[in-house]
Amino acid sequence: MPINLDKTDLAILRALQDDGRMTNAELAEKVHLSPTPCLRRIKRLEQAGVIDHYTAEINRSLVGIEISAFVFVQLQRNSKENAAQFERAVEQLNEVQECFVVTGSYDYMLSVATRNLASYDRFIKEKLGDIETVAKVDTTIVLNQVKSRRQLPL
Asked: How many Cβ atoms are within 10 Å of 83's Cβ, its own excluded?
């Protein structure tokens, strides 16, 4: 259920999405608050789960991650037990960046990152392919990323 956010909360969230490393003093100035009330609002947003976590975005190519792929997975049988087993297994796979339950011909869509095609091949054959509930896998390799935006349109 959405939390009630005022214009100052939204300004704080927009600013933190743009630069999560800014100091509280810098943020307070940017959103026209003094530091103490700004920090109180941040703590309230964190405690309410609106601010889920803080992270650094890493340039994939500069750390040797050459392959990005979308992997569509169909389960053998669409049941609560199969879904739970698949989801537990996917949680253990470091190559899986995101996992979505989807509608249509497939049950899941995974965003996957690997070092190269050989490591992607091993991921499919030795990891994803070993999950008992998987019936079908279809892959789309990303050739070029045109846009990447993590910030939500608040």
From this structure: 16
Is the domain defined by 61-141 classed in CATH 3.40.50.12280?
no
pTM: 0.86
* Lookup: tokens for 96: 């899986």
- Using DSSP, state whether 45 is helix, strand or coil: helix
User: pLDDT tens digits for the chain (154 residues)?
Assistant: 788 999 999 999 999 999 999 999 999 999 999 999 999 999 999 999 999 999 998 999 999 999 999 999 999 998 999 999 999 999 999 999 999 999 999 999 999 999 999 999 999 999 999 999 999 999 999 999 999 888 889 9
- Beta carbons of 138 and 71 less than 8 angstroms apart: yes
7-47 maps to which CATH number?
Answer: 1.10.10.10
Can you give the residue ranges of every domain in the chain?
Answer: 7-47, 61-141
